Amino acid sequence: MNEDDTRLVDTGALLARTLYAHGLGAGHRLLDVGCGYGRLAIGLMSTGYEGRYKGFDILPLQVRWCRRHLTPADDRYRFRHLDVHNARYNATGTIEAAAVRFPARDESHDYCALFSVFTHFYADDVRRYLAEIRRVLVPGGRAVTTWFVWDDARLPAITAESSAYPMVHVLDEVTRYETESDPLKAIAYREDFVRELVRGAGLEVETLVRGRWAHDGPDPEQFQDLLVLRRPPLGTATRIRRRLGRLRRRLVRAGRG
Ligand SMILES: C[S@@+](CC[C@H](N)C(=O)[O-])C[C@H]1O[C@@H](n2cnc3c(N)ncnc32)[C@H](O)[C@@H]1O
């Protein structure tokens, strides 16, 4: 997260365009998980996003900066700090990532964004965050997420010196990382393992776009691997059951009043 102001705004706009390309639009509610110092928020502001935004991060200084500089410019942009443990970013954090609860109600968001966040997570934390994504998304809602993923075919490219992050260290059969002394600097998971985690959380992979970090991505603007996840929409029977439940509760309230 070291960049000058121009690059910050340009990268923010690129992240915003990635979300628009996957359907983010006016009236949507977006949760930016691991918002850092507001790069995506700045990108959304500079490209005229007409929806609501909430970001949270585990770094207090960054969140404070966003609250001080971004919310006053547009009060639809809100930021929260959560003191979650991450060995790289917040080693003294008091909340275990594997037990975190996002600062959002059930089914309260149309989109989640996790840009360059799962690339710094161990698997148990990924599992919990995917479950939380499912909880806060409306049925049919999407999470736009980035990762480093690999499979047997990709292994030579991702371990080569020419890879942006040569994933030469092995944690277990599905996990590789670049820097021996700092595994969470850049961590990569087997693609089929990621798909299993996503399925296990009750989500589906809608799109996978390989990034150019491993030299085989089709889109020069996509550096990490992009996975768009979706909470499946409700079936007709569930929709009717929910509507009836709401109607029944309203009738009970009216009867009491
Ligand atoms: C490489 S930065 C990316 C920031 C931002 N998403 C962006 O693209 O500009 C990774 C971010 O993930 C945050 N992070 C790390 N662990 C986290 C956790 N358990 N929950 C939420 N955010 C976390 C870090 O504090 C950091 O801001």
Q: Order of strands in the sheet with the most strands?
A: 3-2-1-4-5-11-10
CATH architecture: 3-Layer(aba) Sandwich
Q: How does the overall form come out from the CA principal axes? A: globular
| SSE ordering | HEHEHEEHEEHEEEHEEH
Ions, cofactors and other ligands present here are: S-adenosylmethionine
- Radius of gyration using CA atoms only: 19 Å
What structural class should be given to the helix and strand makeup? alpha/beta
Q: Which bin fits the share of residues in helices?
A: 25-40%
Largest sheet: 7 strands, mixed
Instruction: Name the poorly predicted regions.
Output: none
CATH topology: Rossmann fold
Terminal-residue CA separation: 55 Å
Within CATH, the superfamily carries the name Vaccinia Virus protein VP39
Number of helices: 7
What is the domain tally? Answer: 1
User: Quick one: how many beta strands?
Assistant: 11
Oligomer: single chain
